[in-house]
Amino acid sequence: MKSAVSIIGGGLAGCEAAWQLLQRGHAVQLFEMKPQRFSPAHKMEYLAELVCSNSLKSNHADSAPGMLKQELRTLDSLIMSAADQTAVAAGSALAVDRTEFARTVQDKLLQQKNFKLIRQEVTKIPRDVITIIATGPLTSDRFARAISEMLGGSYLYFYDAIAPIVNADSINMGKVYVASRYGKGTPDYLNCPLTENDYETFLHELLAGAKVPARHFEEMKHFEGCLPIEVLAARGHDTLAFGPMKPVGLIDPHTGTLPYAVVQLRRENSAGTLYNMVGFQTRLTWPEQKRIFRLIPGLENAEFARLGSIHRNTYIHSPSLLAPSLQLKTNPNIFFAGQITGVEGYLESTAMGLFAGLCTASILEQKAIHPPPASTAIGALVSYITADESRQNFQPMNINFGILEKLSAKRMKKKEKHFEYARKASEALKNWMHEQNLQT
Fold first, then answer.
1. pLDDT tens digits for range 50-62
2. Is there a shared CATH topology between the 4-158+313-435 domain and the 165-307 domain?
3. pLDDT tens across 81-125, in order?
4. pLDDT tens digits for range 135-191
5. Whether pTM exceeds 0.85
6. CA distance linking residue 296 with residue 244, whole number of Å
7. Are 359 and 325 in contact (CB under 8 A)?
8. Under DSSP, is residue 233 helix (H, G, I), strand (E, B) or coil?
9. Domain segments of the chain: what residues?
10. Phi and psi of 12, rounded to 5°?
11. What is the structure's pLDDT at 38?
């Protein structure tokens, strides 16, 4: 037993961080409040409970989720091993038997001699021992207050209103134009102009579109400044045209006139590969979002790196708070892992748990470690949540090709490009593992 690490939270990230530390000979005490206390969403006593779905998304090597899965397998992920072991038929996706999956993860951890499971809620954060916080999006109120106090209160979010993000290369640039309202500042927005007929059609479909009902643990009061687009639309025919879709100051250079309404797209990353639909947070179902938002001129063939949602989510402003090692900048004894860091999704959370475990082990062993390159799925996620601390509009993100390091190769067809991303990621991860002396 080289050392002891406290991990708070027995979800996917906490279990994965524990596994990585245990495999390197470190002792781990994992705190999990179940069954002493359950969040409104959790039902099982097992660790690593999957709450919302049993699907872990695509298993295809040429998809971004598939790339992430393969990287996790290469790095001896406990969560991926348990998922593969308990998989159920789901076409090209990887889905699992939830109960068997959670039982498998817990059993494998309990078999480790340096592992101690403590079933109690933590309400205070130790500042002088190495601790990984992995309490997830449904962090208990008492522990959330402890985090908020540690961070100064202004960097912790409990409410997540997410607008869709569009892949730049799927936007019809012949129909959109670059401009900022009234020509103020630099023209940083892409503008999708709508005629009155376009607006009427869009409004009708938006109001009629199927919505996702709020689950009992997600009920919330919406902020006036962050209302779902369909809630605004229901307030009156012209609410959107005078609100997030107002065209004032945005003359269309193609026609020389002011459109009836405009949907603005804001650059999401410095590479310009992703654009955020400004003001379009929504509870529309994902199929409806794709159908309805593709009615907008310029977005007829839009591919979405992320679709909109509104739900309870506890996460921190990681770019300003965390080092690339996932250590808190103001206290290197504290690491954050999982969805609370600002990633979305089961395996994205797992990946941040895995990396937090590797970083913690390296610190304990007095070794230097740096994140994998941004050409890998794991490296891209770490970069997304820790780079550019001045970002004001930081929101959680799933793995997608848009956050990966941009390919420098010639133009390729989409499938060819995706395979090239996967090839480059695999090669980069192997090189990184060799540099870090990590066994394959």
1. 876 678 988 888 8
2. no
3. 999 999 887 667 898 888 899 999 999 999 999 999 999 999 999
4. 988 888 899 889 989 998 666 665 556 789 899 999 999 999 998 766 655 667 899
5. no
6. 14
7. yes
8. helix
9. 4-158+313-435, 165-307
10. -60, -45
11. 80
How far apart CA 411 and CA 251 sit, in angstroms, is: 32
CATH number belonging to domain 4-158+313-435: 3.50.50.60
What is the DSSP annotation of 28-92?
A: EEEE--TTTS--TT---SSSS---S-SEEEE--TTSHHHHHHHHHHHTT-HHHHHHHHTEE--TT
What phi, psi does 138 have (nearest 5°)?
-115, 40
**Within 13 A of 427's CA, how many CA atoms are on the CB side?**
6
CA atoms within 13 A on the CB side of 395: 20
Per-residue tokens: 77: 């992920």
- 3-state SS, 158-220, equals EEEEECCEEEHHHCCCCCCEECCHHHCCCCCEEEEEECHHHHHHHHHHHHHCCECCCCCCCCC
Q: How many residues would you count in the chain?
A: 440
How would CATH label the architecture of 165-307? Beta Barrel (2.40)
Which residue type is seen at 245? Answer: M
